[in-house]
Write a structure and sequence with these properties.
Length: 381
């Protein structure tokens, strides 16, 4: 039964490595009380103009790592497909690699089994640190803390996918800028509302998460419209993403659409902080305004306009539009003067040390046990 001892010994050493990793996780002191957006006035990312829109997708996987990861085409092929569909902004988000040929440079961070992933835009370098198996809330916060200084726009990717981030977690975590609410692997509207209700400004992104751009179902299933003219610079794009000049779209048909086939928001205006006015480029089946707790505050049917008088209990307001072809979700308007985001919470030193010592001892015990098993086999030989 030598092989059984060897296997068991190796498994124990692996478990020891994982225990060591847990021991290195800082424990954060999260605020238990959410602080919803407050203030007399409203911050409106779309204020004051007739809006122009450009289409974007920042989550496409190309052929990378010698085919080890899921991705089929070269950046040039990907660009050709999205150009033909009229996209202005394209980002290739390979796993753990900033593709030098991506028009907008970014990468997808994360290699855990739970698919806890983040999109790091304009990242200066790739971070490899991750927690491969279980990720506590503190572990998730630690990853965001490590990524934060490397990227000016940090996005929590596809929360609903394997429930990698729950709504409760997004209501406590700090240090992220946006949520990829719409993604082919799972749409996360409830999780987003939870983050917004807790008083954290997260702009919306929608993405195909395409791995094969020649598969009709993978292309233009979700995307982002950005309130920028096509002549805008990359610097303006960076600002627009951060301040929330984005609308996420979900395609309800099985085919890519022309922009003439779906509604765009022509105007989203807050008049004198007391009247929200919305106008779409074409009549839609319904327009909805959603606020605190994901509650629907107002609905209008078969129309291209909607007005709403904000109530005292409204802390944020976002707009949804539905047609036969698409669903559209705007980034929120919030009470206050600017997008407010939770910072990374402080570390609880006492708990971090206590927990660290506990895991280190566990790890040491597992190492000794593993080595003992392996050595017994060696002695007998
Ligand atoms: Zn992912």
């Amino acid at each position: 039964m030598h092989w059984l001892r060897i296997t068991l010994g190796i498994l124990l050493l692996l478990a020891a490595a994982l225990a060591l990793l847990q021991g290195l996780t800082p424990v954060y002191r999260f605020d238990d009380q959410p602080t919803p957006f407050r203030g007399k006035g409203w911050y409106n990312p779309f204020e004051g103009e007739t809006l122009t829109w450009t289409r974007a997708n920042f989550h496409i996987h190309s052929y990378a790592w010698g085919g080890l990861t899921n991705g089929h085409q070269s950046p040039a092929e990907i660009q050709r497909v999205y150009d033909s569909l009229g996209y202005r902004w394209v980002g290739i988000a390979d796993y753990q690699r900033i593709n030098p040929h991506s028009p907008i440079p970014l990468y997808e961070h994360g290699w855990s089994v739970g698919k806890v992933h983040q999109l790091c835009f304009w990242a200066e370098k790739v971070r490899w640190w991750d927690y491969p198996l279980y990720q506590s809330l503190s572990a998730k916060q630690h990853i965001l803390k490590l990524l934060r200084p490397t990227t000016p726009f940090l996005v929590v990717a596809h929360p609903r996918f394997l429930h990698s981030y729950t709504g409760d977690e997004l209501a406590k975590l700090g240090g992220y800028d946006a949520i990829e609410v719409l993604n082919r692997y799972g749409d996360s509207v409830a999780e987003w509302d939870s983050a917004l209700s807790s008083g954290h400004y997260a702009s919306i992104l929608g993405s195909d998460n395409a791995h094969d751009v020649y598969n009709l179902h993978e292309v233009m299933s979700r995307w982002t419209e950005i309130a920028l003219p096509s002549s805008a610079s990359e610097e303006s794009l960076r600002k627009a993403l951060l301040v929330g000049r984005t609308v996420g779209y979900k395609n309800r048909t099985p085919f890519p659409l022309q922009s003439s086939e779906y509604p765009l928001f022509s105007r989203i205006t807050m008049r004198g902080d007391s009247m929200l006015e919305v106008k779409t480029s074409m009549p839609v089946d319904s327009l909805r305004i959603v606020g605190q707790g994901g509650q629907v505050r107002s609905t209008a049917y078969q129309t291209d306009t909607l007005s709403y008088h904000p109530q005292a209990e409204d802390t944020y307001l976002r707009i949804e539009a539905f047609t036969k072809a698409v669903e559209a979700y705007t980034s929120p308007l919030i009470r206050g003067t600017q997008p407010k985001r939770r910072l990374i919470p402080p570390i609880d030193m006492r708990l971090t040390i206590l927990q660290g010592v506990g895991w280190m001892l566990t790890s040491l015990f597992l190492i000794l046990l593993g080595l003992r098993l392996l050595r017994t086999k060696y002695d007998k030989r």
